[in-house]
Amino acid sequence: MTLFDKWLAVVLATLNPLTGRGVAIPLGMGFGLPIVTVALVSGISNFVLAVVMILFIDRFDHIPWIKNYIEKKRGQKITGFIQGKGLLYSVVLGPFVLGTFTVVLVFQALGADRKRMILYSLISAIIVTPLIALISPLFLDVFKQYKALLHF
Predict the structure, then answer these.
(1) What is the separation, in whole angstroms, between the first and last Cα of the chain?
(2) How far apart are CA 152 and CA 52, in angstroms?
(3) Taken in order 7, 8, 13, 17, is the CA torsion positive or negative?
(4) How many other CB atoms are found less than 10 A from the CB of residue 48?
């Protein structure tokens, strides 16, 4: 595997909603890439995709059934949570539980403010990515075992 292929695998793992930074960072470390650079690339990739999703989801407002669903959800009690500090907690802590992209989709559907979502996604990238990078060495041995099985 070339160096370019390794970096491409890290970026694509970050952009994949099923894997995200939690897989991309240990993957990069398993490939022998520098952890600081892997965390930086992973955080930037994650933030850029979150911003694209936030801006793209607003384009769906003109589709009637999506608009009706959004309006129905906005009327529920969760709207108060979104308007308060719940959005910050969910965007910063949500990636550990649900993943960044799921949190963005859910909160955008529930009517969160776009600018706040972008700001909090940036905060999440700044806070969550280094935490994952600190935790990742614990899982490096697991990746090395799979690497040996797959003959990378």
Answers:
(1) 7
(2) 33
(3) positive
(4) 14
**What pLDDT sits at residue 59?**
67
CB of 43 closer than 8 Å to CB of 21: yes
Amino acid at residue number 16: N
Tell me the two tokens of residue 98: 């649900």
Nearest partner of 38 among 130, 127, 124, judged by Cα: 130
Cα distances from 4 to residues 7, 49, 63, 136, in angstroms, run: 5, 20, 40, 22
Helical (H) or strand (E) element with 3: helix 3-15
Q: Are 148 and 47 in contact (CB under 8 A)?
A: no
Residue 40: which of 16, 11, 77 has the closest Cα? 11
Buried b (16+ CB within 10 A) or exposed e, 50-66: bbebbeebeeeeeeeee
State the 10-residue block means of pLDDT for the chain, 152 residues long. Answer: 89 82 84 90 88 76 64 62 68 70 73 78 83 79 67 58
Q: What is the pTM of this model?
A: 0.69
